[in-house]
Amino acid sequence: MRTFLHGCLLWCVFSGTPAWGSAPAEPLVSPEVQLCLQHLKPAERERAAKALGPLEELPLYRVQLEVDPETRGVKGRVQVEVLARKHPLTELYLRLTPNAQGRRVTLSDAKLGGRPVKLERPEPTLYRLSLESEPVPPGAAAVLDVAVEGLVPRAAAPSGGGAGGLLGGLMGGGGGRPSGGDHGAFSATADFISLVGVVPQVPPVGENGQPWDGPQGIGDLGLYEPAHVLATVTVPTGWAVHATGVPMGEVPERDGRVRYAFAAAAVRDFPLFVSRGYASSTATVNGVTVESHYAAADQAAGERVLKYATSMLAEFERRLGPLPYTHFRVVQAPLSGGAGGMEFPGLVTIATQLYRGAAGASEMLGGSMQGMEDLEAMLGMLGQSGGGGGGGVLGQLNGAMERTLEFTVAHEVAHQYFAGLVGSDPILEPVVDESLAQYAALLYLEWKHGKKVAESVRQETLVGQYHLYRMTGGKDGRADRPTGHFADEMEYGALVYGKAPLLHHASRKLVGDAAFLKALRAYVDTYRFKWTCKDCFTKELAKASPANASALERLRTRWWREAKGDEDLGKPRLESLLGGFEGLEGLEALQSLPGMDLEALQGMQGFEAFQEMDAQSKELLEQLIPGLMGQ
Prior knowledge:
There is one protein chain. By secondary structure, this protein is α+β, with helices and mostly antiparallel strands. The chain is built from 19 helices and 20 strands. 36% of the residues lie in helices and 21% in strands. Strands 5-4-8-2-1-11-14-13 form an 8-stranded mixed beta sheet, covered by helices on one side. Helix 3 packs parallel to helix 19, helix 8 packs antiparallel against helix 9 and helix 12 crosses helix 13 (536-544).
């Protein structure tokens, strides 16, 4: 690690800064921006400037925070510097996503260039500063300094026993229909504190002058214009800080605490995490330092995650272009609410349950789970014993969970391109980036393991998720809609993660592999660091295959805007849900039943035992889909 000597530059910025100042006659890259630019590969700085304009003109966040794990408190100051480019600045907004779940973080003692100002709060997650009385002219910068203080809520306790707890362990969430929320993005356990959103950030502004919508309780939390960040976070000895950017060093404080520093460039978000008892493994691929951070007890899974991440990054860089950052981190996190992972520029988190589920699914199933005897009877209906080892359903479940872990990591790595590089609105248009990240993960599995494996996972993870949703009473509908327009996470997952990515599968079949991959690379190159649109990828496909332009648009309408899922994917069938359990005796008989659903099991051997199962075991059977929560 570098020493912290450069970090002293952070502190000078908190004293006596004017409200705005004229830009120099000739552009000058400040030492602060130079620190941030270490996060960009040298070869990528010119490409970033071509897309964004002079890099010294990007917004700059200066962050100074202290975290107290014992009280779950976080406090400090954040300074935001925004340049007025083409038009005067008449107002400035700040988004605090943790406040979507209640007022968890507050801003106070706001100063504009050292002068006290009053912030308005038009929405729970939004603060506004009016500059109408003294607009910031083009070429000058508004410098807003605020005090930040928050109390991090305790993470939801995992369900104890039964199907809910089991599926929470295997699929990254609780049993039943996931309830949404922030998936633990702002929460604390005894050894891990997630501080996503604690740094207030300037939201993008639409053509109407209003900021983009904030989190809706379903899906992602937000995304921002590319910006630079200089941050220091102080924690007690024995705790570590994980963030996006280049690590600038760790400095012991006189009071026994440790100050961590990071510098990030041209990132659309800046996540922060604090952990205790974590270990790490590191590798390098194409000039990117890849780090895997994990609980020490999960070292084996953590090292596999590193192997997966480096392999994926190499494949994606070869086909989609280079990742611009010098560092990429994968951090194990106790996510909740059905999330298998969360994505941020230069850093992703993967649910703790996936690290442990992949290693011990059989043990979990074969342990003290209530209703296990009834489940054994149901498995007998498929001609299987419940024995573990290398055979049977329980033996195969370990392999299915390892595929889930690998697919989830692939999905999150793909998010570095969609929407980390190719920006899109995750609230208004979640179908844009999620569908491409999901399908790119399938492409990786095909490149790495072959078409047979990729097809199996497509059936399990995409088609299976849609079929389960339909089997449990969900109705097909339009996938292309804002996150707030979905009834719950189950519907959101089935349509956005399950059905919508299959547009790309259909488009690829239409235009062929060569044209599809050419268009995908062109899409990334064209919209790198910019904002894309809902039909932008379809237009790139049309350029690569002009004869199919009209057909491609019809496909996008069908898969994203219409409710044709049953026609395109067939009625819910048990084989799509159990696609990962190849070779099950009796499965062919089940597959032969037209329109197979749970009601079709009437009269089959073992169905009486199923009817007498407790509710938790029934829930387990209905949700036992390898890779279901691979988003």
